[in-house]
Each structure stands twice: as structure tokens, then as C-alpha cells.
Automatic annotation (TrEMBL):
One of its GO terms (molecular function) is carboxy-lyase activity. Keywords: Flavoprotein, FMN, Membrane, Mitochondrion, Prenyltransferase, Transferase, Transmembrane, Transmembrane helix. This is Flavin prenyltransferase PAD1, mitochondrial. PANTHER family: FLAVIN PRENYLTRANSFERASE (PTHR43374), FLAVIN PRENYLTRANSFERASE PAD1, MITOCHONDRIAL (PTHR43374:SF1). It catalyses: dimethylallyl phosphate + FMNH2 = prenylated FMNH2 + phosphate. It is an enzyme of class 2 (transferase). HAMAP family: ubiX_pad. Residues 19-188 form the Flavoprotein domain. It comes from the Eukaryota. It holds the Pfam family Flavoprotein. Belongs to the UbiX/PAD1 family. Dimethylallyl phosphate binds at residues 169, 185.
Amino acid sequence: MASADTATKSENAPAHHRKRIVVAMTGATGAILGIKVLIALRKLNIETHLVMSKWAEATIKYETDYHASNVKALADHVHNINDMAAPIASGSFKADGMIIVPCSMKTLAAVHSGFCDDLISRTADVMLKERRRLVLVARETPLSDIHLRNMLEVSRAGAVIFPPVPAYYIRAASVEELVDQSVGRMLDLFDLDTGEFERWEGWQKP
């Protein structure tokens, strides 16, 4: 028979863990990728923690029909990039991973060097030290030696570099289809299936 202490612990046990993903958006081109990631995670009932740089907000306004406030509304929690006391800045905060989408070369360099001068680079640093999944959707072309070295070292530290390369084999009818395919592949890295993109199944007859 269970003791009173055991019964109390059982009653106070936390509910089933809802998966948590930190989403960071920087000022690199490709704001729609970050927006679509947030939409997909919302559909999958994943708890999201969003951090946006000031240049991410500017890029969203320039490249899309969204306003920063609309994008923030897609997340469960929004953290100010300068709030170094935010829960996600600590390794004690349980998270299932982080995706920086899009990821600028400046942010990549900060992650590589461990220069945690804002909440995005600090949280990325936490993911690496806690051995949690960190995905950097790097947006730049062509790549310099510096970019490539930073990518290699960050990859060696445990992160995944994910350039959003178009999947031409799906013969997309729109840019949106290409974006959905990239987003689906990004979330595959967190064992999440959006079910909203075409997967390769070998050569198909026309």
C-alpha cells in the first residue's frame, strides 16, 4: 500500500509533458520561413517560445504581409531579445530544442564564439551545453571562408546547419510549396511531422 508521502507526490506530479520548442528569428532574409514554422508548431500543439531581433521585425514588414505583432501572436510565449533573465536563458528550463529561422551570419558567428550578448545567442549556447537539438536555418549565399568555418565548428559542437535549399523534385507550383517543404524538413529534425509536404518516394511516372 502506498504511503501518504508517495500518494502526495503522485497527486502533485506534473501533467504529461507538452513538447517545447524555442523559435528565434533574426534579420536575415527568409522571414516567411520563421512564420511558417510557428504556424506549423501551433497546428501540432507544440509550446513555442519566440525571440525576435529588431531586424527580424523589419524584415517581416518588408518581405511579408505580416506585422511583427501578428507573428508574436502565433507563439505561446514571447521573450524580449534583451531579457537575459528570461526562463529560456537557463539550462534548468526544460526545452526540446531550438530553431533559429532564418539565421543571420552575425548570429551564427555569435553562436560559434559563445558570445552571448542577447537572448538568442544565449539560448543557443544553452542548447549546446545541455546537448539539446539546435537547428540553424542559415540564410546567406555565396558563403565566405568565415561563414563556412563558423558552420563547421557549430556543427561539431552539436548543432544542425540547415540551409533552406529548394527541393526541385517536388516540381512546386508556387514558392509557398517550396517553403512548406523546407519547413517540414526542418521540423523532421525535432521528430515532428507536419504532414503538409511531399516526401521523396523514388522516381514517379509523369
